[in-house]
Design goal:
The chain is of the alpha/beta class and 173 residues long. It contains 7 helices and 6 strands, in the order βααβαβαβαβαβα.
Length: 173
Amino acid sequence: MAAKNYDVKDLKLAEAGRQRIEWAGREMPVTRSIRERFAKEKPFKDIRISACLHITTETANLALALKDGGARLVLCASNPLSTQDDAAAALVKYGIPTNAIKGEDDNTYYKHISTALDNKPQLTVDDGADLVTTLHTKRKDLIKNVIGGTEETTTGVVRLRSMEKAKQLKYPI
């Protein structure tokens, strides 16, 4: 890796994380099948994706599928209490910039969101709408690049619907 584009607790945890990610992957046959298809078809070739998700072994398998599909992906944690430090370290070793530390404070949390947005995303993948909210409030200059996104929580959808109703949501989610 040329420049440090990640912030995790300890890269020495990567091997344990890799083993747990592989174990989780064996228990996720649909994701594995999608990953294999993406590796062949490259549907996200050179698409920049910023994702704010629970950094776990399950999410790692999603991230690997996106990467194999050609995405230029940067991850940050949506919930510092759910972060699995070994999975975060392994993701870095897999070549996916990851910014997540279990128990990180609010300043670090928002710094990590900003780092994910430094990827100048074309797509956003969010859990709780903090990434999208930060994009719309503090990083508005990047919105012109974004073509769409996803949100996986009811809380996030409520926030986004409120933004949409106020005509503040600038791209489809």
